[in-house]
Amino acid sequence: MFHIFQYQPLRLITQNSLSSMCLKLMLSRPVAFAQIWKSWFSSHSLLGKKNIILMGPPGAGKTTTGRIVGQKLDCPVIDVDDDILETTWNMSVSEKLQDVGHEEFLEEEGKALLKFSASGSVISLSGSNPMHSAGMQHIKKNGIVVYLDVPTTVIMSRLKSKETDRIVGLSPGISLKDLLQFRKQFYKRWFDIRVLCGGDVAAEVVAEKVIDAVKRYQDSELESFVSTRSDRSGRSREDSHKLYFSDVVTQGLALDGGLFVPERGLPRFTAEEWQGLIEVTYVERAQVILERCIHPADIPASKLAEIIETAYGENFSCSKVAPVRHLAGNQFLLELFHGPTASFKDFALQLVPHLFAYCIPRSCNYLILVATSGDTGSAVLDGFSRLHDTDKQRIALVNFFPEDGVSPIQKSQMIGCQKENAWSVGVKSDFDFCQTAIKQMFTNSDFTGFLTVEYGTALAAANSINWARLLPQIVYHASAYLDLVHQGIISFGSPVDVCIPTGNFGNMLAAFYAKMMGIPIRKCICASNENNVLTDFIRTGVYDLRGRKLISSFSPAVDILKSSNLERYLHLIANEDGQLVTQLFNQLENQGHFQLQKDLLGKLQQDLVAGWCSDEDCLAAIHSVYSTTGYILDTHTAVAKVVADRLQDRTCPIIISSTAHYSKFAPAILRALRIAEINQNPLSQLHLLSSYSALPPIHWGLLETLKKTGNGDHQVCAADVSVLMSHIETLIQNHFM
């Protein structure tokens, strides 16, 4: 049995001579000595008794990278092929493979791994080790498995000039590409950390990335969160301890009323790393991006992969999940409506319920509060209805929506999506009241404390104020750019603009975050309807709600005056000055307005451009696009189309976010198509639209929901926070008690 337990220094130095050298250096050059000692201690404390285990396909560079990592950390390096297998068998790997065949080889290889143990070493696995379950379980017990993720095209190019007679599973009738794709499932099963390795990245750079990734893995404290209203030290007045991803997912809103943001910002990908994602699927892109945004101490990579595959698998009607379609000229549509409830909200709300269920403690029940101006309601109800039954027993949800402020089909959908643990409540007010009421309940310590003590129930939020809601939106903005590169429309590095119908600013903020992470987005164009407070703010720096009343429009999801996620953006451009953010939003709350300083307005206008359009222009755009292309835009996408036509300079492609399927707004669409008589029954309206044989076809999920559920009952409440609080208490009593 192989045992390697102690660090082996590269040079042998006697204890006396080492002490003498250290003393001389410490006395003559104390700063240099301190730096060398710090570097040595950091390297050795990084490993301790753990091993760094490098895993990846043949040609990934595991052996070369392992040697460099071992040299940098001054620790033993073990190559499984050369140091374990060939030593054990007394023959080369290729000879053994020819001798026993592929299946027996895997067994023999696994047995050799089971007899091996090491400590404080860098171990380079063979490309086929991960296919032997028992062997991997054994070696992983004392190690951190690092997956060197190299694009398949790069691996195939590297292996062209090498002998492939030692690749297990490669035989006549099985292509190298198919074999590499088949093996990915095993690599994804075992890794703790993924390191992206592009085609032209030097082994020295990969080794540094491995070490950095291991440091991140072992130090979750680097990825804490702060409130947008915290002071410069990162702590809010009410909160003196650090919070992590699991905490902010369950807590939703900071105790001081601010929104959570990562203390050290978002990770940045290199151009090579982004280019490595051009050929892969949407699910794989999501896994890579979210792994870098969620620390494995909160959700391990293997569990995160399972959650993502569940969220974006069979629940979406399009295999591309978020396809990009050419519309006209240099305009492209990012279709975000292929999820089960026909809007972009599905991207977050098919994922977040599973993240939430994993992160919350088992000792407490949770009631999730949601405010919606339309699409969030059915999306969150559908998402939480897909949890396991055991999770439904401890997680319930209340969806507040403006009773007269959503489309008839949206309302039918929200009512029809109610489940045994999820309810829709109409409020006799607008979205801004619903959202403000939820914030007040979260910050009412008497109310939240009473629910915890009396009913063992904590409140949580699933609106876009919850940090976890933003992350999946970053993914589709990045993916859209990569799709344009993949389609040959642009080369990587060429800029694009994005135009997004904007209400609560979450979707726009996610696009800006994608830009910060390395996606070459030039301008973010905010598109509003007649509730154009954001347009005025971006143009003037004055956020003014005085005398403004919400106007009901054909694009109800952007019928919003208070854009909550704007607070996160202002915190960012204000260099994380929580005191300034607090001052601005307190003034907005108390006086109904605030004004940005000139320097901040300048920063904002470098990033954002804004415009708005009327209902008449919106309907005209729908008619025009359908007449010329046969494609039907929904009302929100039409708003963005109008604004894009007015503001884009046509020097680069523009990606317009198509945030909902037109089926959800059938009356407005039929009016835009100039249908004289419109039946008031939502199902009849969809059948009429389907007769047009337009692109895209009628949404399958929406049609099925309306067929099955019709228009059920729901609770309606007055616009009074105390009434809503009383209603919540009743629901908790009925569900959890």
UniProtKB/TrEMBL annotation:
One Gene Ontology biological process = amino acid biosynthetic process
Which InterPro entries does this entry report, sorted A to Z? P-loop_NTPase, Ser/Thr_deHydtase_PyrdxlP-BS, Shikimate/glucono_kinase, Shikimate_kinase/TSH1, Thr_synth_N, Thr_synth_N_sf, Thr_synthase-like, TrpB-like_PALP_sf
Is this entry keyworded Amino-acid biosynthesis?
Answer: yes
| Pathway the protein takes part in | Amino-acid biosynthesis
Cofactor dependence is on: pyridoxal 5'-phosphate
Alphabetic keyword roster: Amino-acid biosynthesis, Pyridoxal phosphate
Which terms in the GO cellular component ontology are assigned?
Answer: cytoplasm
Q: What's one Pfam family the UniProt record gives for this protein?
A: SKI
- Superkingdom per UniProt: Eukaryota
* Signal peptide bounds: none
- Residues covered by the Threonine synthase N-terminal domain: 237-312
Question: Which residues are reported to carry the modification N6-(pyridoxal phosphate)lysine?
Answer: K345
Picking any one GO molecular function of the record gives: pyridoxal phosphate binding
Q: Which PANTHER family match?
A: THREONINE SYNTHASE-LIKE 1
Read off the NCBIfam families from this record.
thrC (TIGR00260)
Matching HAMAP family: Shikimate_kinase
Which family, according to UniProt? Belongs to the threonine synthase family.
Name of the protein in its database record? THNS1 protein
